C-alpha cells in the first residue's frame, strides 16, 4: 500500500528538497510514500500572487487569506479523501502513538501555515485536526510537516533496511531507547558493557529492557507515569535504581 501525503505550503521546494534524502527518499523510491505539493500562490485571485493581508483588529504581522488556502486545499483533496491536518502551536502534541495511527492511513493533507497564521475561517471549514510538534514557535509549518513526514515514513513497512529497527525506536513502547555501542570495544578507557559482548541473547535482552526503563526514569519520568508497568518491568527498574545508587555511593562515599 502506498501512503500519500499532500502538503499545502508556500515553500514546496523546501519540502521536496528535504524529502529527497534519507528514509523519505527511500520510501518514495520504493513507492511506499507519495508526496503531493500545493502552493496557495498558484490559486490566488491576486495578480501579484499575494496570499496574505493585515489582521483585523490591528497588531503585527500578516495573516494568510481564506480564498487561496481554501482553493489549494480543494485541489489537494482531488488526490484522496484523507483528513486535513493543520500544523499549528494550538494543536494536540504529536507523538509516536499519533505517528503510528496516521502511518496506517492511505492519505492525508498537511496544511503548513506562515506569518501570524491562517484566517480562522479556513480552520473552521476545512481543517479536520490540529497538531503541534512541540511547545515552541517556528517560522512556518514546513519544518513541522517534515517532522511529520519523516516520522511516518520510517513506519511504512519496507521503508527501513531492518524491519525490526522501527519497533525498537524510542517511544514505540512508551519508553526511551536503550544505549547503543559499536566498534572499537574500548574508547578512551571506556569499554562496551560486558553483557553486550558475552553472546548471551537472553541477558542482552534483559539488559536492554532495564536500560530503557532506567533511562526513561532518569530523563523522562513523565512518560513512566503514563505507563502501567508489568511485574518484570517494575523489578528491572528497581534493580536499575539500586545499581545507580550503589554507583553513586562508590563515587561519593559521603553520600552513604
Automatic annotation (TrEMBL):
Cell compartment(s), UniProt: Cytoplasm
Per UniProt, S-adenosyl-L-methionine binds at: 113, 133-138
- One Gene Ontology CC term in the entry: cytosol
Enzyme class (EC, first level): transferase
Give the SUPFAM superfamilies listed for this entry. alpha/beta knot (SSF75217)
The keyword Transferase belongs to this UniProt entry's keyword annotation: yes
Its chief place of residence is cytoplasm
Gene Ontology MF term list: tRNA (guanine(37)-N1)-methyltransferase activity
Catalytic reactions of this protein: guanosine(37) in tRNA + S-adenosyl-L-methionine = N(1)-methylguanosine(37) in tRNA + S-adenosyl-L-homocysteine + H(+)
* Enzyme Commission number, as recorded: 2.1.1.228
Q: Which residues form the tRNA methyltransferase TRMD/TRM10-type domain?
A: 4-226
Q: Which keywords describe this protein according to UniProt?
A: Cytoplasm, Methyltransferase, S-adenosyl-L-methionine, Transferase, tRNA processing
Family per similarity comment: Belongs to the RNA methyltransferase TrmD family.
Quaternary context:
Homodimer.
Q: What is the stated purpose of this protein?
A: Specifically methylates guanosine-37 in various tRNAs.
* Listed name of the protein: tRNA (guanine-N(1)-)-methyltransferase
Name its species: Thiogranum longum
